[in-house]
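Interim report, section 4.2 (structural modelling).
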Amino acid sequence: QSALTQPASVSGSPGQSITISCTGTSSDVGVYNYVSWYQQHPGKAPKLMIYDVIYRPSGVSNRFSGSKSGNTASLTISGLQAEDEADYYCSSYTSSITVIFGGGTKLAVL
Amino acid sequence: QVQLVESGGGVVQPGGSLRLSCAASGFTFSDYGMHWVRQAPGKGLEWVAFDATNKFYADSVKGRFTISRDNSKNTLYLQMNSLRTEDTALYYCAKGNFLRSPFDSWGQGTLVTVSS
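Predicted structure of the assembly:
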């Protein structure tokens, strides 16, 4: 099963909003609300930022939000801060009873 | 708080075997499903396996890797056989609940290098 499709990179200025897309199929993102987003800083372990499409774990800033339309999920970061610069990965449960990740998106805060 | 500490990584020749361990603390280990996720150098994340009541594997490792746990030791394992160069990666263990659940806590990873 192919990985979910994410843009390789996105960028924004401090204070702006950006959106990262995550496109799957009718066998994963399109049929299940089990999409999560992870933030990974260089040399660090990933950190859960959004789960079940729209929910934020305790302690995650409300500047991070998730949504889904059809086969595409999205992560929006508002009020960009320098500390948001990182790699972001989406993941989804699949009808093959597996989990797949997106290829990752490098966010640059200019 | 939740702590996951991986160990057992190293350098192994193609065709060789290695067993990874993940020591868990800060939660009731036996109540939760656990995953292994890997990341090849400079690449993205790849889900490897999940252990709970049942076990599930990615196609890329099915038949070669075996996930298991010892609840009395709060430890998760990954037995890796018939290793290939493409298995070279940082291997993370991650806490989940069900297979569909998010990975809500991660260890720092243990590096496996498959090379002749």
